[in-house]
Design a protein that fits this description.
The protein is α/β, with parallel strands linked by helices and about 190 residues long. The protein has five helices and seven strands; from the N terminus they run ααβββαβαβββα. It is elongated, with a radius of gyration of 19 Å. The termini are far apart. The relative contact order is 0.20.
Protein backbone atom coordinates (compact mmCIF):
# COMPACT_ATOMS: atom_id res chain seq x y z
CA UNK A 1 0.00 0.00 0.00
CA UNK A 2 2.83 2.41 0.86
CA UNK A 3 4.40 1.82 -2.55
CA UNK A 4 1.07 2.67 -4.18
CA UNK A 5 0.94 6.06 -2.43
CA UNK A 6 4.56 6.85 -3.29
CA UNK A 7 3.96 6.03 -6.92
CA UNK A 8 0.59 7.84 -7.25
CA UNK A 9 0.81 10.74 -4.77
CA UNK A 10 0.52 13.40 -7.48
CA UNK A 11 -2.57 11.76 -8.98
CA UNK A 12 -4.16 11.48 -5.53
CA UNK A 13 -3.39 15.14 -4.80
CA UNK A 14 -4.97 16.14 -8.12
CA UNK A 15 -8.12 14.12 -7.32
CA UNK A 16 -8.37 15.66 -3.83
CA UNK A 17 -8.02 19.21 -5.20
CA UNK A 18 -10.51 18.44 -7.96
CA UNK A 19 -13.05 17.15 -5.42
CA UNK A 20 -12.50 20.19 -3.18
CA UNK A 21 -13.20 22.46 -6.16
CA UNK A 22 -16.46 20.65 -6.83
CA UNK A 23 -17.77 21.19 -3.30
CA UNK A 24 -19.29 24.69 -3.01
CA UNK A 25 -18.20 25.15 0.63
CA UNK A 26 -14.51 24.67 -0.28
CA UNK A 27 -14.51 26.00 -3.87
CA UNK A 28 -14.99 29.69 -2.96
CA UNK A 29 -12.21 29.87 -0.31
CA UNK A 30 -9.77 28.11 -2.66
CA UNK A 31 -10.63 30.45 -5.53
CA UNK A 32 -10.31 33.51 -3.28
CA UNK A 33 -6.92 32.32 -2.02
CA UNK A 34 -5.62 31.80 -5.56
CA UNK A 35 -6.96 35.19 -6.68
CA UNK A 36 -5.19 36.92 -3.77
CA UNK A 37 -1.92 35.24 -4.74
CA UNK A 38 -2.30 36.52 -8.29
CA UNK A 39 -3.42 40.07 -7.42
CA UNK A 40 -1.02 42.87 -8.25
CA UNK A 41 -1.23 46.61 -8.06
CA UNK A 42 -3.36 48.09 -10.87
CA UNK A 43 -1.65 50.29 -13.43
CA UNK A 44 -2.52 53.82 -14.39
CA UNK A 45 -3.79 54.43 -17.90
CA UNK A 46 -1.38 56.58 -19.90
CA UNK A 47 -2.47 60.23 -20.00
CA UNK A 48 -3.16 60.07 -23.76
CA UNK A 49 -5.43 57.03 -23.39
CA UNK A 50 -7.49 58.22 -20.42
CA UNK A 51 -11.18 58.68 -21.14
CA UNK A 52 -13.05 61.62 -19.64
CA UNK A 53 -16.25 60.93 -17.75
CA UNK A 54 -18.83 63.60 -18.59
CA UNK A 55 -21.99 61.75 -17.57
CA UNK A 56 -22.12 61.14 -13.81
CA UNK A 57 -25.85 60.39 -13.73
CA UNK A 58 -26.18 57.04 -11.94
CA UNK A 59 -29.04 56.46 -9.53
CA UNK A 60 -28.02 54.41 -6.49
CA UNK A 61 -29.32 53.52 -3.05
CA UNK A 62 -27.41 52.62 0.06
CA UNK A 63 -28.08 49.49 2.13
CA UNK A 64 -30.70 51.35 4.18
CA UNK A 65 -32.61 52.30 1.02
CA UNK A 66 -31.66 56.00 0.90
CA UNK A 67 -31.33 57.26 -2.66
CA UNK A 68 -28.30 59.07 -4.00
CA UNK A 69 -26.71 59.79 -7.34
CA UNK A 70 -23.11 59.58 -8.46
CA UNK A 71 -23.45 63.10 -9.91
CA UNK A 72 -23.52 64.40 -6.31
CA UNK A 73 -19.76 63.73 -6.23
CA UNK A 74 -18.84 65.10 -9.64
CA UNK A 75 -15.59 67.05 -9.23
CA UNK A 76 -14.31 64.73 -6.48
CA UNK A 77 -11.86 61.87 -6.73
CA UNK A 78 -13.95 58.71 -7.11
CA UNK A 79 -13.18 55.05 -6.65
CA UNK A 80 -15.98 52.95 -8.09
CA UNK A 81 -15.93 49.19 -7.60
CA UNK A 82 -18.54 46.99 -9.28
CA UNK A 83 -18.70 43.70 -7.41
CA UNK A 84 -20.77 40.81 -5.99
CA UNK A 85 -20.56 38.60 -2.92
CA UNK A 86 -20.60 35.43 -5.07
CA UNK A 87 -17.63 36.56 -7.20
CA UNK A 88 -14.29 35.05 -5.99
CA UNK A 89 -12.08 37.80 -7.51
CA UNK A 90 -14.36 40.43 -5.92
CA UNK A 91 -14.11 38.79 -2.51
CA UNK A 92 -10.34 38.35 -2.95
CA UNK A 93 -9.69 42.09 -3.39
CA UNK A 94 -12.02 43.29 -0.63
CA UNK A 95 -9.43 43.31 2.21
CA UNK A 96 -7.12 45.59 0.19
CA UNK A 97 -10.04 47.85 -0.75
CA UNK A 98 -11.09 48.06 2.91
CA UNK A 99 -7.54 49.11 3.85
CA UNK A 100 -7.54 51.72 1.07
CA UNK A 101 -10.92 52.99 2.29
CA UNK A 102 -9.55 53.18 5.85
CA UNK A 103 -6.65 55.32 4.59
CA UNK A 104 -8.54 57.56 2.11
CA UNK A 105 -12.24 57.34 3.02
CA UNK A 106 -12.33 60.97 4.14
CA UNK A 107 -10.54 62.26 1.00
CA UNK A 108 -11.93 60.07 -1.80
CA UNK A 109 -15.55 59.24 -2.63
CA UNK A 110 -15.84 55.45 -2.57
CA UNK A 111 -18.69 53.63 -4.30
CA UNK A 112 -18.94 49.85 -3.98
CA UNK A 113 -21.79 49.07 -6.35
CA UNK A 114 -23.70 45.81 -6.75
CA UNK A 115 -27.12 44.50 -7.68
CA UNK A 116 -27.57 42.09 -4.78
CA UNK A 117 -30.20 42.19 -2.04
CA UNK A 118 -29.46 44.41 0.99
CA UNK A 119 -29.94 41.48 3.41
CA UNK A 120 -27.25 39.42 1.68
CA UNK A 121 -24.92 42.42 1.50
CA UNK A 122 -25.40 43.34 5.16
CA UNK A 123 -24.63 39.76 6.20
CA UNK A 124 -21.48 39.75 4.02
CA UNK A 125 -20.29 43.08 5.41
CA UNK A 126 -20.90 42.03 9.01
CA UNK A 127 -19.26 38.61 8.59
CA UNK A 128 -16.11 40.17 7.13
CA UNK A 129 -15.96 43.31 9.27
CA UNK A 130 -16.16 45.68 6.28
CA UNK A 131 -17.52 49.20 6.65
CA UNK A 132 -16.97 50.75 3.23
CA UNK A 133 -20.05 52.29 1.55
CA UNK A 134 -22.07 49.83 -0.51
CA UNK A 135 -24.66 50.94 -3.03
CA UNK A 136 -27.22 49.13 -5.13
CA UNK A 137 -27.55 50.26 -8.71
CA UNK A 138 -31.01 51.67 -9.51
CA UNK A 139 -30.30 52.73 -13.10
CA UNK A 140 -27.86 51.99 -15.88
CA UNK A 141 -24.27 53.01 -15.30
CA UNK A 142 -22.91 55.89 -17.38
CA UNK A 143 -21.67 54.54 -20.71
CA UNK A 144 -17.96 54.91 -19.87
CA UNK A 145 -18.50 52.97 -16.61
CA UNK A 146 -20.44 50.16 -18.22
CA UNK A 147 -18.76 46.77 -17.77
CA UNK A 148 -20.16 43.26 -17.73
CA UNK A 149 -17.11 41.89 -15.88
CA UNK A 150 -16.80 41.60 -12.12
CA UNK A 151 -14.97 43.06 -10.41
CA UNK A 152 -14.35 46.22 -12.40
CA UNK A 153 -12.85 49.18 -10.57
CA UNK A 154 -12.41 52.75 -11.76
CA UNK A 155 -10.30 55.50 -10.23
CA UNK A 156 -11.52 58.86 -11.52
CA UNK A 157 -9.78 62.19 -10.99
CA UNK A 158 -11.47 65.48 -10.08
CA UNK A 159 -11.46 66.43 -13.77
CA UNK A 160 -13.34 63.24 -14.76
CA UNK A 161 -10.29 61.46 -16.18
CA UNK A 162 -10.48 57.70 -15.72
CA UNK A 163 -6.97 57.22 -14.35
CA UNK A 164 -7.28 53.49 -13.58
CA UNK A 165 -9.71 50.96 -15.00
CA UNK A 166 -9.06 47.46 -13.70
CA UNK A 167 -11.02 44.34 -14.53
CA UNK A 168 -10.33 41.49 -12.12
CA UNK A 169 -8.83 41.34 -8.66
CA UNK A 170 -6.05 43.74 -7.72
CA UNK A 171 -4.05 44.86 -4.70
CA UNK A 172 -5.60 48.27 -4.14
CA UNK A 173 -3.65 49.06 -0.99
CA UNK A 174 -0.31 49.17 -2.81
CA UNK A 175 2.25 51.97 -2.70
CA UNK A 176 1.58 52.83 -6.35
CA UNK A 177 -2.17 53.32 -5.74
CA UNK A 178 -1.40 55.47 -2.68
CA UNK A 179 1.02 57.54 -4.78
CA UNK A 180 -1.59 57.96 -7.52
CA UNK A 181 -4.25 59.07 -5.03
CA UNK A 182 -1.84 61.48 -3.32
CA UNK A 183 -0.95 63.00 -6.70
CA UNK A 184 -4.63 63.32 -7.69
CA UNK A 185 -5.41 65.08 -4.42
CA UNK A 186 -2.70 67.69 -5.13
CA UNK A 187 -4.20 68.62 -8.52
Amino acid sequence: MNAFFKKNWSNLLFVIIFVLLLVPQTRMPIQVFIQRLMSFSPSEISKNDQLLLHDYNWSLSNLKGASTNLKNNEGNILLINKWATWCPPCVAEMPSLQKLYNAYGDKVSFYFITDEAPEKLNAFMLKNGYDFPVYISRSSAPKKLNSNSLPTTYLIGKDGAIVIQKVGAADWNSNSVHETLDRLMEL
